[in-house]
Amino acid sequence: MEYVILVGKALHVVGFISWFAGLFFWGRILVYHAEIEERPESEWDILEREYIGMENRVYRGIVNPAMILTWIGGLSMLGSAAYTGTLSRWFVAGTAGWMHVKLLLVFLLVGYQHYTKARIMKPMQEGQRPRSGWQLRLWNEVPTFFLISIAFIAVMGKVGALNWAYLITGIALFGFMIYRGAKAYAKKRAKDALTQEQKESQEKQRKVLSKVDGKY
Predict the structure, then answer these.
(1) Alpha helix (H) ranges present in 93-163?
(2) Tens digits of per-residue pLDDT, 10-69?
(3) Residue 35 in contact with residue 10, Cβ under 8 Å?
(4) Is 89 exposed, middle or buried (0-12, 13-18, 19+ CB in 10 A)?
């Protein structure tokens, strides 16, 4: 039975890594999809079809299978522990409540995935824009908080070295830095767009003036 637990742990790790990789990649595609209108209008139809296809392939080929593999690995470990009568140790040993919080976060991550699919991806594929590109950039950082929280809880909580106050404070500070960085990036993009518009306007004026000078 120990062998089953080890195999389950390996599958759990592989699924966990693949799940987050898929969520980050999927979220980035949704950002690009939301920002199609910033590209030349002649490219909209082509990009729309391309992003819809990529979103579906990443979700069906990576995100959802990896989520299922994560659950299979985790449940196989819990099932094996229950069979050998050691399951209670997983919930009692270490920092109090670490396993309960970890499972809660995994459930919430599943909810994040399905909400993104139902409330963001599907409407976007139907031509709607429920979120701006900037909002989706922030939304795409949500899995980062799950990743950090689950990793620290699983590693440190199991051995009783987890301090909940430090974890919450660290995540809050990280969230603040992410938000400030996103604001700075949005400001820079707006400034660059304005500069580009000014350059295009100046170029048009130059062409008009050159035509006028040519007539005289």
Answers:
(1) 98-115, 122-125, 133-139, 142-158
(2) 999 999 999 999 999 999 999 999 999 888 888 889 999 999 999 999 999 999 999 999
(3) no
(4) exposed
